[in-house]
Amino acid sequence: MYFAKLPGVTIKRHFGRAVSSIELSKRQEKILEIVRESGHATGRQIAAKLELSRAALRPDLAILMMAGLLGARPRVGYFLTGKQPSDVVAAVLGNIKVGEVQSRPVVVRDNCSLYDAIVTMFIQNVGTLIIVGEDGCLEGVASRKDMLKATMSGSDLNRMPVGVAMTRMPNIIVTYPQETVERAVQKIINHEVDALPVVEPSAENTGRLKVVGRFSKTNVCRVFAQLTGL
Ligand code: ADP
Fold this sequence. Notes:
The protein is α+β, with helices and mostly antiparallel strands. It has 9 helices and 12 strands. The protein has a 4-stranded mixed β-sheet. A 3-stranded antiparallel β-sheet has the order 1-2-3. Strands 4-6-5 form a 3-stranded antiparallel β-sheet.
């Protein structure tokens, strides 16, 4: 839903909250200019300078506050927070949870043959397979290059289980439905991987991790596409 225009950002309703990015409306820019010039200004003062009623000004003030560009204090009025639109985007990413944007997990059993695992990658159109044990809990992860490496070794792909090619627990970097997208993106960058299994502790409390989703670079691209209205 179109929501409003902000500086360098279009503010929209995404994931249930306001998100900023490009171009403020002329009036919003004027409001920021007035507040910048006087250090701080009350709604009444801003309205007088713009020759508008305070009611007419209210939506713009609300948007600027929601975007984090304006703050307000009793008896002081509105002031500039000093935040840049980029801070606002960071704040938004810090607000979206992995569980809101994750994809369904594509999993195979650890005893699945390498051949079948590669076919699953093709059919399901994913670059990372999540490998689970008999109990459905996380055992490992196999990437495209893991598969290539195994293929190049010349072994019989029908006889070798995917388990021999995967990176295994406890070396798997995971994320959680309640983790922020910002934190998950940091993990992807720091560990130089394409995807993270989204997990929850298993109901049996064994320390094993139930796989509930998949969070990949594609999910990150989708978030940006939605935020920018692509
Ligand atoms: P590719 O190897 O196809 O470039 P990645 O960069 O995702 O794909 O994987 C690099 C290596 O890291 C692979 O050996 C893979 O098994 C491993 N890997 C991928 N994802 C994870 C993860 N979430 N946690 C730990 N290791 C991972």
